[in-house]
Amino acid sequence: MYKDKVIPFIPEGDFYFTKGVEAFQKRKFELAIKWLKKAIEQTPKEALYQCQLSIVYTEIGQFHKANQLLTEVVSEHGEHYIDCYYLIANNYAHLGLFQDAKRFAETYLEKNVDGEFKEEAETLLDLMDLDEEEDDDDWAYEEEDELLIYQETVFYHLEREEWDIALPLLDELMTLFPTHVSAKHEYAFAKFFDGDQGEAFRLEKEWLEENPQSLYGHTNLAIFYYESGQQEMADEHIEVIRNVYPIHEQQKLRIAFTLARTGYCAEAYSRFRALSKSQLQGHVSYYKWYSVAAYHCGEVDKANVLWAEACKRFTFLDKNVKPWNAE
């Protein structure tokens, strides 16, 4: 008899937003994303919801998604959400797109000279001035969407060791964005493990002559020599990188997994422990080589936990084949 008197409860966006913030504060990131997406569906014009969702994406290392949201906010509400310019700059810095990071950090400081993130923006600019290799990147703003698509697609296949698929994509990426530093090194890396070791060596040696301080060049050659049974040659490049402490998590990861892959597990384990897990959850290499380093340092339980988490997160992995047993 009460059927017709039921009043459905349809939460406003604020309800979902509050639930999302609570989940975020408890570091339940997947739940936070779920609630915040519901908030945006309920109130799509509320820029605050999009900003908060972008912060969650940044926390878990999905910088592309974060910037897509923030770019929309800037496009529609730029003057009212000045902090977005700094957040975008920070995400670009993590992605290695330093010219764009610099541009947005400078824009933030121009628009808000005494803003909440003034100190962070100034520090970011100072750190980028110290980075000479990536300073040559100079992308036009309208090219970013295409670049991001290529980067995401290439990353997907490299993490799955699908070298034959990644190589033509990297070839296209280098043609379209010839000054994109990391792409050529990823190309050489994929070449080596796809079987063309001679070409991989030739490319990296050539690039290292042009830029002797290249982190990518030294890490790749360390791995190439080690995999080829030339430990002494690998050690020469290890000596270069073992005293390098980059500011960006993905570069820190590159050093950590290079040390793990070349037998320096104690040093690798120390490096992995210092990484921000929340920013690297999308990287198979983080879990795989962290678990290998932990295992060889006697932290067997830690290794098993890491590998179990990796298999849960990346369903293409074989949970029955632990990486330290497959070496």
TrEMBL record:
It comes from the Bacteria. Pfam families: TPR_8 (PF13181). Keywords: TPR repeat. TPR repeats lie at residues 13-46. This is Tetratricopeptide repeat protein. It comes from Radiobacillus deserti.
